[in-house]
Amino acid sequence: MKNFKIPSVLKNKYVIAVLVFLVWLTFFDQNSFLVQYSYQQDLNKLEKEHEYYKTQIDYNKAQLTQLETDTALLEKYAREKYYMKKKNEDIFVLVAASDSTQESFTE
């Protein structure tokens, strides 16, 4: 077996200290790089959700303003969403049959 020589760079105590410090920060520390990366991903996800909900709030505010100002639109919304009706009026709600109910009838 040949004599294995350690490079002089690895004999330097400062290089060893920096390497140990980097390994410690990468894997063992409470605020390791891996944990920070995970936190950054969570933050990005939450920022996307924040933008989504912000646009939904703006959309709902616009809808509410329209419903408050337009009585015909309010009546249409009430009829479609809550099945409200006028006096002497019949409403028929048609529901599509799902696949599971169709199978039970055919068996």
Describe this structure in words.
The protein is an all-alpha fold and 107 residues long. The chain has one domain. The chain has five helices and no strands. Helix 3 packs across helix 4. The longest helix has 37 residues. The protein is rod-shaped. The N and C termini lie far apart (79 Å).
Could you provide a short overview of the structure?
This protein has 107 residues and is an all-alpha fold. It has five helices and no strands.
Number of domains: 1
Structural class: mainly alpha
Oligomerization: single chain
Share in helix = over 70%
Overall strand count = 0
Radius of gyration: 33 Å
Q: Can you give the mean pLDDT?
A: 84
The biggest beta sheet is recorded as: none
Overall geometric form: rod-shaped
State the helix count.
5
Order of helices and strands: HHHHH
Strand content: under 5%
Separation, N- and C-terminal Cα atoms:
79 Å
Uncertain residue ranges: none
Question: What descriptors fit this protein?
Answer:
107 residues, mainly alpha, 5 helices, 72% helix
Topology, please?
Elements: H1 8-11, H2 13-28, H3 33-69, H4 71-82, H5 99-106
